[in-house]
């Protein structure tokens, strides 16, 4: 439990630090901060992927890789499994977490809904980095309709 709290505090401080020193409150400045957070998450995701046992990396199908992310990787990072995984079987996957740990504290009011994207950028990068290490190039976006639930859309980019 201490690891989860430590990660949550570290993540909150990263977001706060990037927004505190953002001298450009325009959409362009906010995009830069989101890009920095996503880049940090990407590198962490790559590092997590590199530490996986080699037998776990022998996936045959994209769907198996996404199932692995929803179960094993999500548990390693957030101490819970993803709530659902859906696909159109054409390279697009939607991962849903109905109680995303980094948004739970914000769920007390709808006024925080517009602040949610900056708390998801790191995790989008984390997923993209882990997929990259597993040999899958992807685009990962996140959306929040009601706190603390969120959806991550993963679009596999064919090479």
Automatic annotation (TrEMBL):
Main location, first listed in the record: endoplasmic reticulum
Cellular compartments annotated: Endoplasmic reticulum; Golgi apparatus, cis-Golgi network
Keyword Transport: yes
InterPro entries for this protein: NO_sig/Golgi_transp_ligand-bd, TRAPP_component, TRAPPC6/Trs33
Alphabetically ordered keywords of this record: Endoplasmic reticulum, ER-Golgi transport, Golgi apparatus, Phosphoprotein, Transport
Record GO biological process: endoplasmic reticulum to Golgi vesicle-mediated transport
Pfam families per the UniProt record, alphabetical: TRAPP
GO CC annotations, alphabetized: cis-Golgi network; endoplasmic reticulum; trans-Golgi network; TRAPP complex
Subunit and interaction comment: Part of the multisubunit transport protein particle (TRAPP) complex. Heterodimer with TRAPPC3. The heterodimer TRAPPC3-TRAPPC6A interacts with TRAPPC2L. Interacts with TRAPPC2L.
Task performed by this protein: May play a role in vesicular transport during the biogenesis of melanosomes.
Family to which the UniProt record says this protein belongs: Belongs to the TRAPP small subunits family. BET3 subfamily.
Name under which the protein is recorded: Trafficking protein particle complex subunit 6A
Species of the source: Vicugna pacos
Gene this protein is translated from: TRAPPC6A
């Amino acid at each position: 439990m201490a690891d989860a709290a430590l990660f949550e505090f570290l993540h909150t401080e990263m977001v706060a630090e990037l927004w505190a020193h953002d001298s450009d409150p325009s959409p362009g400045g906010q995009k830069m901060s989101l890009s920095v957070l996503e880049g940090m998450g990407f590198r962490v995701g790559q590092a997590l992927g590199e530490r996986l046992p080699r037998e776990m990396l022998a996936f045959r199908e994209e769907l198996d890789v996404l199932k692995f992310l929803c179960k094993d990787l999500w548990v390693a990072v957030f101490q819970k499994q993803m709530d659902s995984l859906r696909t159109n079987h054409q390279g697009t996957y939607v991962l849903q977490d109905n109680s995303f740990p980094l948004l739970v504290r914000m769920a007390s009011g709808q006024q925080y809904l517009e602040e949610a994207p900056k708390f998801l950028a790191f995790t989008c990068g984390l997923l993209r980095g882990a997929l990259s290490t597993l040999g899958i190039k992807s685009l990962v976006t996140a959306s929040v309709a009601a706190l603390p639930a969120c959806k991550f859309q993963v679009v596999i980019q064919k090479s």
